[in-house]
Every structure is written in structure tokens, then in C-alpha cells.
Write a structure and sequence with these properties.
Layout: E1 8-12, H1 17-27, E2 31-36, E3 50-51, E4 54-55, H2 56-59, E5 65-69, H3 75-86, E6 90-93, H4 99-102, H5 107-113, E7 118-123, H6 138-144, H7 165-188, E8 193-197, H8 198-204, H9 207-216, E9 233-237, E10 242-246, H10 250-259, H11 274-279, H12 281-292, H13 297-307, E11 311-313, H14 317-321, H15 324-328, E12 332-334, E13 344-346, H16 370-376
Length: 380
């Protein structure tokens, strides 16, 4: 059971953005049917590392789904795909523009046959316009949309973010649109088409960078772990490692200065207000580095946490996954799997007071539920 119990999702997407959106719908209780090619399967099934025959990359975005294989080059399987679409509430696809129409599964036909269907199309840059046929993956769009130009050290090269933020944020945007369309359908009885693109999502995430550019004409550059509008707000070396300090408010700055024994910095005209600290960060940073070198990152974190000053040591992934708060909130979950007894995955980040989300199914093996789903269609 879950918030979306009784909702069926047909997941025709591949790789990361679409599968991530579909997995979240499954986490909320929807019956998600993942459709894959009988030969190749999802693109990510071959991505290493491989654990007991299963790609960890693939498994990370495909729990709470049932799996079926269909060969859309055959009339029989196209008809099965059509039958599944007619029995679904939501369809998610990420094929090149026009491909679904060639298979007889395009939006206009499906909307005519199943007016309640919510059809979510995920693409690189949008299904209309000069770039409608652009091939796009996460890294390419990070470069194309300007994200890499603001990521990395100022004196270094543009770099990719540490995780696939373009794909995952596009999946989150698709999820948001789908849930809004479900609510709209409750009022109108009609489904609708949703277009979501990697480019559009990344441009939307530029928020304050883009508005500042429109206001000033200044093209933002790379600032490492620091922030273009807030200071001190970044990573600083301590006696044994790096500490992130995130002081966005002048009241926190005053408290910080008292705490480290440098009260004279509170009223120093170079640093008194946040805009001053941003302008004079080249002068401020050496002072902070000298101060923070006197203790370890853990010592500083303990002291500042007690004073309510936002800070944190920089954890590696193993440390982050082992945090007591992560365990308490069940942000890591155990997933039952026939071939992997100890399969763990990042859990469900949304906590519902009623109809809580749950992990009910392991990521399906290739075509694992084909016979079961065909039987439901009367084709077994």
C-alpha cells in the first residue's frame, strides 16, 4: 500500500532520469511495469560494478518495479505495448522524437484511446525547436547548459559534478510534473502530455546565477566550494582535514568571531556585513585559514555545532552512509533480492504520515515478470 496504490505506470525509459522518476512513483505505491528490449535490456544493465550478475548502477534506480521484455520491431509486441498503455495511468518514455509514433504509441493516438493517460516524454533539449533532435546525456548537458563552467576551482579546469545531477534532477522534475498532472486529472478527468528535458531542467537550476547575470551582465565563473553571494561559505583546511563553514547571516558571523576569539572582526568594515565579506573574500580567507588551523575538523565541528553555527567535516560516502541520523531516518534501506542477500540502497527520502512509502520489490531481473504480466493481459 502507499499514496499511489492503484496507479499503474508504464516505464519505457532507459538509463537514469526516467527510471528514477518511475522508481519514486513505485516507492509511493504505484504498480510500475518496466519495459525493456529482449536482447539488450536497459542501457545501464551493463554498467559496472556487477554484483552477483546485476549492475549496481541499474539496481540503484529500478526497485519497486516489475519487468517485461518487448520487441517493438514486431507487430505482436507493439500490440502488447499498446494494451499496456491503455491499462495504464502514466507512461514515461525517453526515446528520440518520433520513435513512439513509428511504433503506434505516440501521444496523440494514446490520448485518443486512453484520455486519462498522463504521458511524460523526457528528452535532451525538448521535443520542439532547433535542438529537438539533439542527443543528450548527463555530462553533455552539464557542458552545454553551462553547469561545468561554474563547477571546479577558479584556477582549474571545468569539471563534472560528482554525481549525475542533470539526469537525477530531470527525473525529479518529471516526478513533480506527473504528480501535478495526477491532481489535475482528479478535477478534469483528463490526462495530459508532459515534456521534460535535461537542458530545461539544468537551465532552471541556474536560478540565482542566471538572474545575477541578467542584472549585471557579469558571466559567473568557478569558485570551488565557495559561494558567489555568501561568505564565509565554503571548505577550509583545519589541523587535520577540511571543514565546511556556511555563514549566511551576519548574526552567525558575529557569533563565529566571538567563538574563535576574534571579536574585532565583527565590526571590521571589510567584513561587517555579508556583501563586504563577499567583496573582500581574498582578504578574509587567509584569516580564517589561520584560525581554523589551530584545531581538527572534528573539534571545530563539535564547538560550532554547540553554538549553532552551520559547519561540517567533509565526510566520504562510507562515513555519510554510516551516520546515526541516516540509520534513524532509514535513508538507507535493505532491499530483498533473490541473488543478493545484503542488497542495500539509498532509501525513500519522503516521509508520509499516512500511507507511508515502502520497498516492496527488488529491481527486476531482465524480463523477470514477462509471463506474469502477459497472463494479466490474457496472453499467458
Amino acid at each position: 500500500m502507499g499514496t499511489l496504490d492503484g496507479i499503474r505506470v508504464l516505464d519505457l525509459s532507459r538509463a537514469l532520469a526516467g527510471p528514477y522518476a518511475a522508481m519514486n512513483l513505485g516507492d509511493m505505491g504505484a504498480d510500475v511495469i518496466k519495459v525493456e528490449d529482449p536482447v539488450s535490456g536497459d542501457t545501464t544493465r551493463g554498467f559496472p560494478p556487477i554484483w552477483n550478475g546485476q549492475s549496481t548502477y541499474y539496481m540503484s534506480t529500478n526497485r519497486n518495479k516489475r519487468g517485461i521484455t518487448l520487441d517493438f520491431s514486431t507487430e505482436r509486441d507493439r500490440q502488447i505495448g499498446l494494451e499496456l498503455a491503455l491499462r495504464s495511468d502514466i507512461l514515461i518514455e525517453s526515446f528520440r522524437g518520433g520513435q513512439m509514433e513509428k511504433w503506434g504509441l505516440g501521444w496523440e493516438r494514446l490520448h485518443e484511446l486512453n484520455p486519462r493517460l498522463i504521458y511524460c516524454a523526457i528528452s535532451a533539449a525538448g521535443r520542439e525547436g532547433p535542438d529537438k533532435d539533439r542527443v543528450g546525456v548527463d555530462l553533455l548537458i552539464q557542458a552545454y547548459a553551462g553547469l561545468m563552467s561554474i563547477t571546479g576551482e577558479a584556477a582549474g579546469e571545468p569539471v563534472r559534478t560528482g554525481t549525475s545531477v542533470v539526469d537525477l534532477s530531470t527525473g525529479a522534475a518529471a516526478l513533480s510534473g506527473i504528480l501535478a498532472a495526477l491532481y489535475q486529472r482528479e478535477r478534469t478527468g483528463e490526462g495530459q502530455r508532459i515534456d521534460v528535458s535535461l537542458l530545461g531542467t539544468t537551465i532552471a537550476w541556474m536560478t540565482y546565477h542566471a538572474v545575477a547575470y541578467f542584472a549585471t551582465g557579469n558571466v559567473p565563473g568557478r569558485t570551488g566550494s565557495h559561494h558567489p553571494s555568501v561568505s564565509p561559505y565554503g571548505g577550509y583546511p583545519t589541523g587535520d582535514g577540511f571543514l565546511v563553514v556556511a555563514i549566511a547571516f551576519d548574526s552567525h558571523w558575529a557569533k563565529f568571531c566571538e567563538l574563535v576569539g576574534r571579536p574585532e572582526l565583527i565590526d571590521d568594515p571589510r567584513f561587517a556585513r555579508n556583501p563586504d565579506r563577499v567583496t573582500n573574500r581574498p582578504e578574509l580567507d587567509p584569516i580564517l585559514i589561520e584560525i581554523l588551523a589551530s584545531k581538527s575538523a572534528t573539534e571545530w565541528a563539535t564547538i560550532m555545532d554547540a553554538a549553532g553555527i552551520p559547519c561540517s567535516p567533509i565526510h566520504d560516502l562510507a562515513q555519510a552512509l554510516a551516520l546515526p541520523q541516516v540509520e534513524y531516518q532509514e535513508y538507507v534501506t535493505q532491499v530483498p533480492h533473490p541473488d543478493i542477500p545484503e542488497l542495500k540502497m539509498p532509501g525513500i527520502p519522503i516521509k508520509f504520515s499516512a500511507d507511508p512509502s515502502s520497498v516492496r520489490r527488488h529491481p527486476p531481473k531482465h524480463g523477470e515478470h514477462t509471463a506474469e504480466i502477459l497472463a494479466e493481459l490474457g496472453l499467458g
